[in-house]
Amino acid sequence: MTWLALTYTVPSAQVNLVNAELTDLGLTGAWIQDAGNQLSKITVYLDRDAQTNVTPEQIQDRLDQLQANGVDLSPLELDEQEVDDSAWADSWKPYYHAQRITQQLTVVPQWEDYQREQAGEKLIVLDPQLSFGTGTHETTRLSMQALEAVVRGGESMIDVGTGSGVLAVAAKLLGVGKVIATDLDEEAVAVAKQNLALNPVAKDVEVLVSDRLNQVQTDPVDLIVANILADVIEPLVPQAEQNLKPGGYFLVSGIYTDQAAKIERALRAHDFDLEQVSQRGPWYGYIARKKG
Fold first, then answer.
1. Measured between alpha carbons, how far is residue 120 from residues 103, 104, 200, 204 in Å?
2. Would you say 254 and 233 are in contact if contact means Cβ atoms under 8 Å apart?
3. Rounded Cα–Cα distance for residues 154 and 177 (Å)
4. What are the tens digits of pLDDT across the range 77-92?
5. Ordered strands of the 122-126 beta sheet
6. pTM value?
7. Strands 157-160, 221-227: parallel, antiparallel or unpaired by DSSP?
8. pLDDT in tens, 174-202
9. Quick one: 55 exposed, middle or buried, by C-beta within 10 A (0-12, 13-18, 19+)?
10. Rounded-to-integer distance, Cα 264 and Cα 247, Å
């Protein structure tokens, strides 16, 4: 498989805004590096073989819109390079190291010999893939923090838009019982299965292809987690209400600043109380609880 690596050099102060635009386009595996002189490099990989993939022109349109709205992205340099899977893996590994995400959870790349820094530290082992990121994005951190806040042990859960499977693994490590992980993308389901296999605690997680909850057949659950884009979360809200037990939690993240009010209205309109609102940079996460 051949990939087009697009690396944009932008002011470090604006790199989160650029990353948000890329995520909104569906590019969740961006890699950010410090370039010195208050500049950052942000790299995304486009699948050359996919007919429906995001194009460089679409990305440029988003960046042009930011600048038209007064965001200074100069020097906004672009470097393009074609890479295959093996070359990507070799270039990625030197920069991807274990990261503590919450008080209890640490994400560890499969190839790193990481030693726990304290008792009780729980390790999520991942082999990152081009399209699904490293499990360390701000929205993933918000989701893990929300899980850590509400999980008491033995709950049932659905992870919608599982991607790399990182939240399903986190949930199992925290003590959740039955977990169903879904994704619309068949490739994501395959990647999630590979990562779940790296974490014995998650060996019983069921992974399936589903458009939101349309293909999920289960009794109401205690938790639904969705770390996806706001445009997907909004139509998911009524499905979450139907598939949660009374008093169950709906944990959502991936919501950019200008989408937050819309998601809050949707949650309140479908019988959810907002128990916690969290923010990291321009990203919002919610702990919503079904009434009853």
1. 9, 7, 17, 22
2. yes
3. 4
4. 999 988 776 665 566 6
5. 99-100, 105-109, 122-126
6. 0.79
7. parallel
8. 999 999 999 988 888 998 999 999 999 99
9. exposed
10. 18
